[in-house]
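QA checklist item 7 of 12: single-chain prediction sanity check.
[x] sequence parsed
[x] length recorded as 246
[x] structure emitted
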Amino acid sequence: MAPFSGFNTDRSELVPIPAEIFTEILPSISRPGELKLTLHIFWLLSRQQEAPKCVCFDELEHDEPLLRGLAALDTAKEPRQSLREALELAVRRGTVLRLKVEDGGNTREWFFVNTAPNKRLLTRWKRLKPAAILELLGRRAVKDPEEMPAQSIFQLYEENIGMLTPLVAEQLSEAESAYPAEWIRDAFSEAASLNKRNWRYVSRILENWATQGRQSGKNRQSNGKPIDPKEYRSGKYAHLFEPDGE
């Protein structure tokens, strides 16, 4: 085996690892497959740009570097069997959270790092239809190193609404974890076009898109038709037009 040539010092290639991995998880893990899988999931999530950050079982079972690493632990065992065993151990330990979604008669699985925002997100998603969840999950993208960083939800709030407060900042963090960046940008844009510059209104737009769906992921302005406020002030969208406030 050739010796390792050394780590890359490019900051864009660094993978953030929570301290609890070293203080709680590593001391308790006894199966190398679980450890390899856990670290690999953190690497995969670090490359994702769009929220929500998670990884599908379909991706993992076709991930050649991961499968090679698991195969090296037990050459007599099918790598995908080792993968499934490692996932079950990680879920049982609580390192990752599992989401099962029905998709055309098949059950698909996604895995999230166990954080408080992700637990709240999955609790909210229990109220959504499978099609809405699948649309949200389908918006994820891998980071492009050459791409300019998108505006954060905090920047959008300050530019469109005003100064942040601690309570609103917490709500923004949860929304950034729950919705794709494109949805968040479009929701702020739609609220501004209707002169409804408050976070409660923007969050209601996002909730409505998640439960009612969007037109192929596009907002109403993108189809070339101007927004008619009367359309929103009556019927099923009327509840969004409440007095301004955070």
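[x] summary fact logged: The chain has twelve helices and three strands.
[ ] second reviewer sign-off
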